[in-house]
Amino acid sequence: MEVCYQLPVLPLDRPVPKHVLSRRGAISFSSSSSLFGAPDPRQLSQRRGAISYDSSDQTALYIRMLDVRVRSQVGFEPERRSSHPYLCIDFRTLHTRLSCGSSPADSGTEKRVHRLLSFQRYLHSSRLLRGIPQQIPLHILDEDYSGQARCMLEKVGSWNFDIFLFDKLTNGNSLITLTLHLLNQYGLVDLFQLDMVKLWRFLVLVQEDYHNDNPYHNSVHAADVTQAMYCYLQEPMLSKSLTSYDILLGLLAAATHDLDHPGVNQPFLIKTDHYLATLYRNTSVLENHHWKSAVGLLRETGLFSHLPPEDSMNMERELGSLILATDISRQNDYLSRFRTHLDQESLCLSNASHRHFVLQMALKCADICNPCRPWELSKQWSEKVTEEFFEQGDIEKKHNLQVSPLCDRETNTVGNIQIGFMTYVAEPLFGEWARFSDTRLSQTMLGHMGLNKASWGGLQPEQTVISEETEPSAGGSRSKVIPQGSRES
159-196: string of b/e by CB count within 10 Å (b at 16+)? Predict the structure, then answer.
């Protein structure tokens, strides 16, 4: 079914061309109130899209492009172009090109697109999209899970949950499977009268919008954060206070909090004059993009179209408030406010705004909880996030940009990056969370973080020796300096 949207009246320098308004597609309006370029009409007819409109900023109109096949081949249409060579590179093929030196018609891209199309063909042929009556119990979905994955879901509330194994058992569909299971477990599908076909399609599009070429910011990370969020929602302080609306919001925010992450950070987007930095005026650029991407998918699938308009708008706005809280550059602001509440014992969870603030803090903890996982899991995440940093540094070197802090593989190691992150970011946050929720889980997380920090400290001398041994070999910019190789999937 085609969904039509009425565009709000905006103070544009010139009217929007009639052929643009009459077609589905991707249009971009910059915050500077001018139309910088209309896309090729031939592309417009091939694309489908959804409008994500921020009512608090009358000039920020952002059209989400949702066709994976088109985006994988042609990338995003920039809001405005600059002369920097990086802007002609598609985020989805960026790391593959850099590491393999392949051409734009990259075989890896073709394989990735083929996988997505095959998965969609499976969905279209499944019973779900042929129309299952709503009265059929949702446990029928268990037939689509493997037996081992179903067994793992019985312990989804365990802090030792191995998301890497679960992703393998679900054939790379951990985010879809986990989120659907949790929504069903809480009874949210029935309570909010969510259409199963729309919900399934929404989760599929969410998973597809994560760039699985990213070593760290991919759908497995989103699934891991969603599982951690569930663990926090089960804590006594939250489980007895949060409403079903709060829980639905928290799970959706966790699943979409890094949606369409390009694998580079905000300073990189700003210094390359990227159109997203321009659109969001260099403020919480990635987080705003994740939020608007999530809203675009909600509207494209019509997941909440049966709710009153004011309720769906409130849901979108509060979803954005949660996702924006994950901006690491605002860490001290949230932590200071949290600490003040705890010092003054002023948190009242019967107050909706206070519950929302606690959800923000829970999502922040879930987003950076990797140092608090058992060593076998934490080590893998540490290696993945560091590799993503180093790949950004490689890109910066290739384009003669100043290498960002922590992104130079020649001068940094996994250990020193992780020790610094735990010391200055993770320990203060989880220390305050333990004050708020002094439970066995909180003490377990702090215990794991202490052991992991000591383990990385013990590996530091060995890493230094290996780094010095590999340094003379020219062209070894991608050589591993980690004493124990990462467990590649």
Answer: bebbbbebbbbbebbbbbbbbbbbbbebebbeebebbb
Cβ within 8 Å of residue 26, ≥6 positions away: 39, 43, 44, 47, 49, 63, 64, 65, 77
More confident residue, 284 or 476: 284
- Tokens coding 318: 């509060």
Query: Rounded to an integer, what distance in angstroms lies between the CA atom of residue 257 and that of residue 293?
Result: 10
* Per-residue model confidence as pLDDT tens digits over 310-345: 999 999 999 999 999 999 999 999 999 999 999 999
Q: What are the CA-CA distances from residue 295 to residues 6, 50, 167, 206, 302 (Å)?
A: 16, 9, 25, 11, 10
Per the listing, tokens 């606690």 go with 358
What's the whole-model pTM score?
A: 0.70
Please state the separation of Cα 242 from the chain's center in Å. Answer: 24
Q: Is 217 a catalytic residue?
A: yes
Show Cβ contacts of residue 389 under 8 Å, excluding neighbours closer than 6 positions. Answer: 404, 406, 407, 412, 417
171 dihedral zone (left: phi>0; alpha: psi -120 to 50; beta): left
Structure tokens at 183: 């929504």
Chain segment 156-167, per-residue pLDDT in tens: 999 999 999 999
Residue 132 banded pLDDT, cuts 50, 70, 90: very low
In this structure, the number of other CB atoms found within 10 A of the CB of residue 356 comes to 16
Active-site residue (options: 95, 181, 211, 217): 217
